[in-house]
Amino acid sequence: MPAEPAQITVTSPLLPDLEELHTLLQDIWQRKWLTNNGHYHRELEKALAEYLGVPYISVFTNGTLPLLTALQALNLRQGEVITTPFSFVATTHSLWWNGLTPVFADVDPVTGNLDPAAVEAAVTERTVAIMPVHVYGTPCDTAALQAIADRHGLKVIYDAAHAFGVQVNGKSVLTAGDMSTLSFHATKVYNTVEGGALVCQSAEMKEHIDHLRNFGFTGEVEVAEPGINSKMDEIRSAYGLLTLRKVDEAIAARQQVAQAYRATLADVPGIRCLQDIPGVRHNYSYFPIFIDAAKYGRTRDELFALLKEHGILARRYFYPVIPAFAAYRDTAPAKAARIPVARALADSVLCLPMHHALSQGDTARVLDVVCH
Ligand SMILES: *Cc1c(COP(=O)(O)O)cnc(C)c1O
Fold it and tell me: What confidence tens digit (pLDDT) does each residue in 262-273 have?
């Protein structure tokens, strides 16, 4: 019987060198300091600020708590926040946890990012902020969104979970808006197993965020406000310093995969890929394809199942749209959502395997199935 070919997963974690990790763990064992702003925590914040080209960054224990904390730090606790329905569900959850009402605006049919015209149309006297997502790492139209925010006195918090290392004309996309959040979950371009970060624009704000991250403590015996515990520990900080050394290589490998996919899929009727945007340093965090079933001859779900039969795990990212989840379906904001473009993208998208460890043979196997 011929051996089954190995499964191809949609993502694969970027792992640090084990020996290097062992050396850092030995150092942590000697220091006997496991969490609360330790040596490796400080080193990681320094290294990330430098790598990402951002002035102030606070690391967190995951990528959801910085979203919650950004809203707290900006004192946003009531009103409406205009956000995207085409994202991972944590984006909307962060609003719910802060007592804010999500208002779902439609997205651009090409990028899947919030459409500034739809955002403008959704502004009411109750709007307090905009929470866009750089979905798949494609930068939002940050200038247009900022212009709307400035006109109406709104805050802008970017969920930049997909945009690690993304630059526009040499500048980090994380410097747009009031704040940006990152996720360092194992499935992302850069990971600390679980982890995340909040990028802000002033030393005072970073100090405020760092207090909120540690129960609101501002001194040994003083708590200034109700904070939360979302501190990153020393072990994952050390891990993160080591994966950071490998991330450029990983992004270069992802670019090779994207180029291989695009070159072949360009000739397949009914399949659309995202293209590189001039002036943008992409991170190739995902490889979504959008399927026009009539032209392609198969539905998205049929292709998803066919890939699975061949041991290839794709993901329907992002499907369904957030207001279609049971958690939100029956709420007024979900019922009010007029988002035909987001729904069409969610119904047609499939993310193909995309990670640094895919071989040419792997991409060829994926393309073989997609093209037949
Ligand atoms: C991964 C992700 C998050 C949540 O990050 P966690 O680290 O898993 O908490 C939030 N928003 C988006 C868009 C994501 O993809």
Answer: 999 999 999 999
